[in-house]
Amino acid sequence: MCTGGCAKCLGTVLIPLAVLCTLANILLFFPGGKVAQDNGHITDEVWYFGGILGSGVLMIFPALVFLGLQNNDCCGCCGNQSCGKRFAMFSSIIFAAVGLLGAGYCFILSAVALNKGPKCNTGSSWTYPFVDGDYLTDHSLWNKCLAPENIVVWHLTLFSLLLIMSLIQGVLCGIQVVNGLFGTLCGDCKCCGCCGGDGTV
């Protein structure tokens, strides 16, 4: 596959993932699917906007760049027909690195939140009743959270989705780093620099 075409495929996948991560982060502001009575009742990691900023906003920029690479005009750069395309592929590596940082940020926050567990009402106070992810293997501990209703399932599901989707985003951006290197060194098979003036190979 041409490097530009490969980048477009990656961008096509990254866009919906970025949207889903943003939605998942927004839903976490509603513990158990309900409006929080107090902002202090929301898990701290939600306020770091891992899904909104890391896997959302920071992922949109590289995704849009990847989508535009296949149609990038590669002609007439300093007398070299292919260098425009090569520069575009090189710049995509930088944007892929930005995407990797965003995905890594979301992944780390999600992992910390999953290990820490949700903030909930234990009957005496709003606190974090779980220690070092013990609730992940022992479901009987979930009874420690009296409110909001189903907060453990809500927390576990959404942060797990963020963890998985940010991991996928990181892998896709990593693929584009390799793809961008190939495009920088070899150009793109559809670049006019690979053709003669009459469009023939």
From TrEMBL:
It is found in: Membrane. It comes from the Eukaryota. It is a multi-pass membrane protein. The chain crosses the membrane at residues 12-31, 46-69, 90-114, 151-175. GO terms for cellular component: membrane. Pfam families: L6_membrane (PF05805). Belongs to the L6 tetraspanin family. This is Transmembrane 4 L6 family member 4. The lineage of its organism: Eukaryota, Metazoa, Chordata, Craniata, Vertebrata.
